[in-house]
Design goal:
It is globular, with a radius of gyration of 18 Å. The chain has one domain: Rossmann fold (3-Layer(aba) Sandwich), CATH 3.40.50.150. The longest helix is centred in the C-terminal third of the chain and has 20 residues. It has a seven-stranded mixed sheet. Strand 4, helix 5 and strand 5 form a beta-alpha-beta unit. It contains ten helices and seven strands. It is 48% helix and 22% strand. By secondary structure, it is α/β, with parallel strands linked by helices. Helix 1 crosses helix 7, helix 7 packs antiparallel against helix 9 and helix 8 crosses helix 9.
């Protein structure tokens, strides 16, 4: 998929300036909202958890001037991304497991995860508590089974994070994913020639399933946020 010229053409058609080589479906509006929630800005260090080939991490670094550290368990994905000569110098990448991140405590100002399917929210929350400086923020954009945002918020709060919230993103996600589906269908012959019919069909079926889930209310698309309180404020809350 990462080597598919047709996928890149579809991505540019659907997302315009928001296309950064991503294999997921989020566009510029979603990426900028995540950056806002996370507090990406010059001089801040942010972790992109499950960064894939790193295109979005580089996009964030370029758009916000933050230092973005992309982490993914796939060394193959990171090697593909390393060949991208347009990668922003403020983005760095590490192959690691999300449950054992090789980063120092209190070393981050933010953590983002875009479509981190299969995330263990309890472990993520504990790592966020360990890694974030006071005032650091979490921003997760993800599709979950209906009601799944509640346990995620509970896990973040149980780990000591505060100001936890969830935003419904289903309407913009459905509109955007409908455009992805139609663009893939128009480009089907070229895409199948590059990635094979099984992969192409799998992507289109996945989009169809998500759209049905959004429409029937069995799947929710949400932005989840939380904050690591300053130490002094945490002490006051505890009292």
């Amino acid at each position: 998929m990462a080597a598919s010229e047709t996928h890149r053409a579809v991505g540019r058609e659907v997302l315009g300036d928001g296309y950064a080589g991503q294999l997921g479906y989020a566009g510029e509006h979603e990426l900028l909202r995540m950056a806002e929630v996370c507090g990406m800005a010059p001089g801040r260090t942010v972790l992109d958890l499950g960064c894939g080939t790193g295109g979005v991490a580089s996009w964030w670094a370029r758009r916000t001037s933050a230092r973005v550290i992309g982490v993914d368990c796939s060394g193959t994905a990171l090697r593909i991304g390393a060949a991208d000569e347009s990668r922003d110098a403020r983005a760095a990448f590490v192959a690691a497991d999300a449950t054992a991140l090789p980063l120092a405590a209190s070393s981050l100002d933010g953590i983002v995860s875009l479509d981190g399917f299969g995330l263990d929210f309890a472990r993520l929350a504990r790592e966020a508590r360990r890694l974030l400086r006071g005032g650091g923020r979490v921003a997760l954009l993800i599709s979950l089974p209906a009601g799944g945002a509640g346990p995620a918020l509970e896990a973040l709060a149980a780990a000591g994070l505060a100001e936890c919230f969830v935003e419904d993103q289903m309407e913009p996600a459905a509109a955007l994913m409908s455009r992805w589906r139609e663009a893939y269908r128009r480009a089907a012959s070229g895409h199948i020639a590059e990635v094979g019919e099984r992969v192409h069909r799998g992507i289109v079926d996945e989009i169809d399933e998500l759209l049905v889930g959004y429409r029937e209310g069995t799947t929710e698309r949400v932005l989840i946020g939380a904050t690591r309180l300053q130490a002094a404020r945490s002490a006051r809350v505890a009292r």
